[in-house]
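Hi V.,

Quick status before I head out on leave. The structure for the redesign project is tokenized and pasted below; the design run finished overnight.
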């Protein structure tokens, strides 16, 4: 029997085991009983509500179409080999001391250019191209750090950070957590680098559904670089601080903590006004517009959909909106599509998804979370032509 012919309960059981979860762990994350999970896996209880399948898929970190037994979209398969090579690169340990007689380390200036190129590739949502770059970049950054730790620590932290960030996008949260942890280790005792490393750590923990831990990690790192008063900090420090506060705010929203989410975004907003628009210090893109987009994302997670939609209308009229990296805009549009879904406006959700795909196709075609939203819109019917075409392309029609 092929995987696609298995009953849905068997597929749930397979993915649960693959994710190293017990039935009780899965039940706890779903807010169900262990008995409920057991009956689903044995086929005693039927999974006939798509919303429940979506919840299962989110906890198991797979696309709902995989649980439904349909062929995995080609876009997902494209990245499998790349992720495996990144996994192999992260699993490679070199305990030998640096030997200058072996292949010389890449010059720091050249490595810096390659790190910058990696970040631009990420920001423009060329995720599979970045996956091809990362194994070599990780190896070279490690070698340069071994040879010149005082010069290359920051570059190594950024390489681990961009690695973690793209892995989160592709639904590989466990591996992203490993890369983020490596960034924290590489930062050593440098307070700014430690704060930078905490950004991907919080992102990975949020992707794993560990919002309390994500908020704790971000808020623990923030005081290390908090200038008093704020305007005494460098723009780089302020950008990292503001980004940490936004990560903590989104984690708070994921916990349903409305007051904390609002307080943290307000603090981030104060800092953003000092940083101003149009900067990308430490590859954060932090500024007033990104704070407004985070407010929308937090509102969606809190279920405040109408507030999110109102804020969305103001956010996309900002001059800076169109100048944000394509990947950032597309990810945001998927968030606002979720808000439209929550209020039952399938047409607006579809338009947001089509615009996201036009802005950065990899964002809609490689992220499991995006395909979940697309599938939900398609099942609402009637479906606009653009959304139907996108769903067919991804195999979720």
């Amino acid at each position: 029997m092929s995987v696609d012919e298995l009953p849905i309960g068997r597929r749930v059981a397979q993915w649960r085991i693959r994710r190293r979860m017990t039935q009780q762990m899965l039940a706890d994350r779903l807010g169900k009983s262990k008995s409920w999970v057991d009956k689903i896996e044995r086929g005693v209880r039927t999974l006939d509500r798509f919303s429940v399948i979506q919840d299962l898929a989110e906890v198991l970190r797979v696309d709902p179409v995989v649980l439904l037994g349909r062929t995995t979209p080609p876009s997902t398969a494209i990245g499998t080999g790349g992720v495996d090579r990144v996994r192999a690169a992260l699993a490679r340990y070199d305990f030998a001391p640096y030997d200058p007689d072996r292949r010389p380390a890449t010059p720091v200036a050249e490595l810096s250019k390659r790190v910058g190129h990696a970040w631009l590739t990420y920001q423009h949502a060329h995720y599979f191209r970045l996956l091809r770059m990362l194994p070599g970049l990780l190896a070279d950054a490690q070698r340069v750090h071994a040879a010149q730790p005082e010069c290359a620590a920051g570059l190594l932290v950024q390489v681990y950070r961009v690695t973690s960030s793209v892995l989160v996008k592709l639904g590989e949260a466990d591996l992203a957590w490993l890369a983020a942890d490596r960034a924290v280790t590489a930062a050593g005792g440098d307070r700014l680098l430690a704060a930078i490393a905490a950004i991907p750590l919080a992102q990975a923990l949020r992707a794993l559904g560990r919002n309390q831990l994500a908020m704790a990690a971000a808020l623990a790192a923030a005081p290390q670089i908090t200038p008093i008063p704020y305007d005494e900090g460098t723009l780089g420090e302020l950008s990292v601080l503001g980004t940490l506060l936004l990560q903590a705010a989104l984690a708070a929203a994921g916990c349903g903590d409305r007051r904390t989410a609002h307080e943290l975004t307000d603090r981030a907003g104060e800092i953003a006004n000092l940083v101003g628009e149009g900067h990308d210090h430490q590859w954060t893109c932090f500024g007033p517009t990104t704070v407004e987009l985070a407010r929308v994302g937090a509102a969606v997670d809190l279920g405040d959909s109408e507030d999110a939609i109102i804020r969305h209308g103001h956010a996309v009229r900002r001059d800076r909106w169109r100048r944000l990296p394509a990947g950032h805009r597309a990810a945001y549009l998927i968030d606002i599509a979720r808000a439209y879904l929550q209020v039952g406006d399938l047409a607006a959700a579809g338009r947001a998804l089509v615009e996201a795909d036009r802005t950065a196709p990899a964002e809609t075609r490689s992220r499991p979370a995006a395909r979940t939203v697309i599938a939900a819109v398609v099942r609402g019917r009637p479906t606009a032509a653009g959304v139907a075409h996108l769903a067919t392309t991804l195999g979720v029609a």
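Above is the designed sequence. Confidence is low (pLDDT under 50) at residues 70-78.

G. will cover questions while I'm gone.

Best,
W.
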